[in-house]
Amino acid sequence: MTQPPFIAVEGPIGAGKTTLSSMLAEELNLPIIKEIVEENPFLGKFYDNIDEWSFQLEMFFLCNRYKQLEDTGVQYISQNQPVISDYHIYKNMIFAERTLKGVKRDKYRQIYHVLTDDLPKPDIIIYIRASLDTLLARIEKRGRVFEEAMDTAYLEQLMADYDEAMASIALSEPETKIITIDGDIIDFVENREQFHTIASQLKELIHERIQHT
Length: 213
Ligand SMILES: Nc1ncnc2c1ncn2[C@@H]1O[C@H](COP(=O)(O)OP(=O)(O)OP(=O)(O)O)[C@@H](O)[C@H]1O
Ligand SMILES: Nc1nc(=O)c2ncn([C@H]3C[C@H](O)[C@@H](CO)O3)c2[nH]1
Prior knowledge:
InterPro entries: DCK/DGK (IPR002624), Deoxyribonucleoside_kinase (IPR050566), DNK_dom (IPR031314), P-loop_NTPase (IPR027417). Belongs to the DCK/DGK family. The protein starts with 5 loop residues before the first strand and ends with a helix. Helix 3 runs parallel beside helix 5 and helix 4 runs antiparallel to helix 5. It has a five-stranded parallel β-sheet with strand order 2-3-1-4-5, sandwiched between helices. It has a single domain, classed as Rossmann fold (3-Layer(aba) Sandwich), CATH 3.40.50. 58% of the residues lie in helices and 10% in strands. By secondary structure, it is an alpha/beta fold. 2'-deoxy-guanosine binds next to helix 3 and helix 4. Adenosine-5'-triphosphate (ATP) binds next to helix 1 and helix 6.
């Protein structure tokens, strides 16, 4: 039996995950699970000194996402309700593998698996890729003060890490549908037609999967 679609929108920092998932939730009338960013007490400190604050930050993200998916994700899935989220739980590993080292990384990996192995995993991923210039422009436009200290090399590395992670999911979970969007070409904010093409593709996939549930 197939589960009702659990859709995650993913991509590096500033790609447009929250924007696109919110637009799709509204258009397709889907409940949305959204990351809470502004109340994170470690992000500012982390961008000022990654080595000092990475463990606290990664654990904070992991625990919050775990709680959110446990509280709401499981509930929607068990009620056969399609749901969209502006993150995939695996993003914890993408970031943590980059920011943690040594014993802390080993401990983090163990905790990650204990907490997440039995959580429902998205079966449709919308992956937004974009060039470094586009991401930097969007991050600047958004204007979060704590991101001003973000190193460009860190963002560039994450872009490569994301590509690698998506390729790895495609290989290890062939049943997971990955829709890749080129955020430099497709502008789902300004161009309604381009947004509707994404929305229609998703609608069709949801419909197909519901019929097989
Ligand atoms: N296609 C687009 N065209 C123009 N601006 C966009 C587009 N997509 C997103 N933006 C803008 O870029 C900024 C970043 O978008 P958003 O917050 O959705 O990114 P995100 O991927 O959720 O970021 P984060 O990784 O930090 O959570 C916002 O100001 C948003 O309005
Ligand atoms: N280190 C680290 N680990 C994560 O799991 C993670 N998830 C998001 N972020 C950063 C990106 C944006 O600045 C901001 C909002 O997405 O938070 C993260 N940073």
